[in-house]
Design a protein that fits this description.
The protein is built from no helices and 6 strands. The chain is mainly β and 130 residues long. The protein has a domain at 29-100: Immunoglobulins (Immunoglobulin-like, Sandwich). Strands 1-6-5-3 form a 4-stranded mixed beta sheet, with no helix packed on it.
């Protein structure tokens, strides 16, 4: 009976409960400045993928995009990327940290290593005989 004293009919209906999709951003990885690396995992049929942030990725809507970036600093830079995977209105997320190492070491001037030598440029004028 309901609150009004009426008998409510029973209804039975089959309900399907789907599992959350599996999200796999892959293991944390390190790449050289200017290098490329594939992240993520193999594609699963029926899954939709969205990577955040989308910058530096070959495609932000596939399961395994290629990452490429240049590090202009002298220190490693780590960027976290997240993938959101959806199927049947269910979703799951995973994160990967990508560390970009700085460019190869370069020689920088040290005090006393290089000496400034002034250069004097002379312009030779033609000699005129009169």
């Amino acid at each position: 009976m309901n609150d009004n004293g009426c008998i409510a009919p029973q209804i039975s209906q089959q309900v399907t409960i789907n599992n959350n999709p599996v999200a796999d951003a892959g293991p944390d990885i390190t790449v050289c400045s200017g290098g490329t690396v594939q992240i993520g995992a193999a594609t699963t049929a029926g899954y939709s993928y969205q990577w955040f942030p989308a910058n530096n990725l070959s495609n932000d809507t596939i399961s395994n995009p290629v990452f490429s970036a240049v590090n202009f600093t002298a220190n490693p830079v780590t960027i976290p990327y997240a993938v959101a995977v959806t199927q049947f209105a269910c979703y799951n997320t995973d994160t990967v940290n990508i560390t970009i190492n700085p460019p190869a070491a370069t020689v920088s001037p040290r005090k006393g290593l290089f000496r400034f030598v002034p250069v004097v440029m002379l312009r030779l004028l033609p000699i005129r005989y009169t």
